[in-house]
Specification:
mainly beta, Lipocalin, two-stranded antiparallel sheet, 12 strands
Length: 185
């Protein structure tokens, strides 16, 4: 015996419409990152709060991943004493409930879902946004004494690449900044 109820086709149509709308929303978020995708390189002089500068080579790679995008970047600093410091970072970003705001997925919870790190444990809280032609990544660190450090990376589309503007603030005071052009490879 087959069960049926009036309006079954209406429910199925509504369900199909919801799936279609969800796919459109996901595509809209994924489409926002498209102009930024690629590999970029450049160099700059990083200016510290005391006015000294340190030369750096920089690279950034922005690629789509399932449900979002990844930003990987590296900096090579050339110290005055001859030391070379090489740092590499990589963060996956996922769409959030807010348009053009992306949450960082930096570790997996007990259920296998990617989640942000915990700033109350000394880990950075990272998020991103796309506003016009600028992709911004923020990293918030909370110190043991309750103070904070906020890093802001603005990557703005420019002909042939990205304009990078980086700022670091400690308890509201700018402690480091750099601006440079990164050429698209």
């Amino acid at each position: 015996m087959r069960l049926s109820f009036p309006g079954r086709s209406v429910y199925l149509a509504a369900f199909a419409a919801c799936l279609w709308l969800a796919a459109l929303v996901q595509q809209a978020h994924a489409a926002d990152i498209a102009p930024f995708l690629g590999d970029y390189t450049g160099s700059a002089e990083v200016i510290d709060s005391d006015g000294t500068s340190t030369p750096r080579d920089m690279s950034v790679s922005i690629h789509e991943i399932r449900g979002g995008f990844n930003i990987s970047w590296s900096t090579i600093s050339y110290k005055a004493d001859g030391r070379i410091k090489d740092e590499k970072y990589s963060v996956d970003f996922q769409s959030s409930d807010r348009p053009d705001v992306y949450s960082a997925a930096m570790k997996r919870n007990v259920f296998g879902h990617e989640v942000p790190l915990d700033p109350m444990k000394g880990e950075p809280f990272v998020w991103g946004r796309i506003e016009g032609n600028t992709l911004t990544v923020f990293s918030l660190f909370i110190a043991e004494n309750g103070g904070y450090e906020l890093q802001q990376f603005d990557r703005t589309l420019a002909e042939g690449g990205l304009n990078l503007s980086f700022s670091r603030f400690r308890d509201g005071v700018k402690s480091r900044s750099v601006e440079t052009f990164l050429r698209k490879n």
